[in-house]
Amino acid sequence: MALLAPSILSADFGNLQRDFEMLNESKADWFHVDVMDGVFVPNISFGFPVLKALKKVAQKPIDVHLMVVNPEKYIEEFREAGADIITVHAEACPHLHRTIQQIKASGAKAGVSLNPHTPVSTVKHLLADMDMLLLMSVNPGFGGQKFLPLVYDKLEELSHIRPKNLVVEIDGGVDLNNCGQLVQSGADVLVAGSAVFNTDSPTETIGKFKQLIG
C-alpha cells in the first residue's frame, strides 16, 4: 500500500491551523513540507516557524524536503523543529554521503532528491545508505506544474538496482489521473499539493487518492 503526503505548500496560509487539523483527520499519511531558499530554486517558501507550529499539532510524520543550498548547515535545526524525514538534493550536496550520515545522526530518516535532469546513476552507490529517494517529476520551485513523464523511465531503471528497504517518493504534478500508474511503476510515497488543496473537498480528494493507491 502506497502512502500519500499532501504538500502544505499548497495549503491556505491564512488558515494553516485549519488545514493542519484537516490533514490530521484525513486519510493522509504524512505532512510534506517544502522548504525553498530562493537560491537553489527560484522561490521562497517557509522555514522553522511554520515547521515548529506544525509540530505542535501534527499527529503524523513530517516529511521535510530541503530545496536549499548548503543544507548540511541546517540539519540539526530542522530535526529539532520537528522533521521526521529530511530530504536534501543531490545537486546541492558536494559531500552527499557525509550529509546522509549527518541526517541519520540527528535521528531523522535520510532522503535524497533528484531533479528531473539528474540521472538515477548519480546516486547508485549511495542507495543503500539512504532511507528514501525522492524523484522530482517537475522542475522544483513552484506548485501546480505539469507532470513530467520521464520519471517513469527513472522508476524502471530504479526497479533493477533499488535495495529492498529503500522508499521511493514522487513529487510534482501528481494527481488522481497518474497516481495509480506511479504506484504500479514502483512508487511508495506520492506527494500531492494543488491536486489536494485546490479542490472543493480536500478530505474527499485524499480519500479518492487512497482508494487508487491503496
Structural class: alpha/beta
Written as H for each helix and E for each strand, in order along the chain, the element string is EHEHEHEHEEHEHEHH
**Bulk shape:** globular
What's the CATH topology label? TIM Barrel
CATH class: Alpha Beta
Overall pLDDT level: 96
The strands making up the biggest β-sheet line up spatially as 1-8-7-6-5-4-3-2
Largest sheet: 8 strands, parallel
Number of strands: 8
Low-confidence stretches: none
Strand portion? 15-25%
Keywords, please?
214 residues, alpha/beta, 8 helices, single chain, TIM Barrel, 8-stranded parallel beta sheet, 8 strands
What is the element layout, followed by pairings?
Blueprint lengths: L2 E4 L9 H10 L5 E6 L11 H10 L4 E6 L7 H7 L3 E5 L6 H11 L2 E6 L17 E5 L14 H9 L7 E5 L7 H6 L4 E4 L1 H4 L4 H12 L1
Parallel strand pairs: 1-8, 2-3, 3-4, 4-5, 5-6, 6-7, 7-8
Describe the structure.
- With 214 residues, the chain is of the alpha/beta class.
- It has one domain (3-213): Alpha-Beta Barrel (TIM Barrel).
- Helices cover 32% and strands 19% of the residues.
- It has an eight-stranded parallel sheet with strand order 1-8-7-6-5-4-3-2.
- The model has no long low-confidence stretch (mean pLDDT 96).
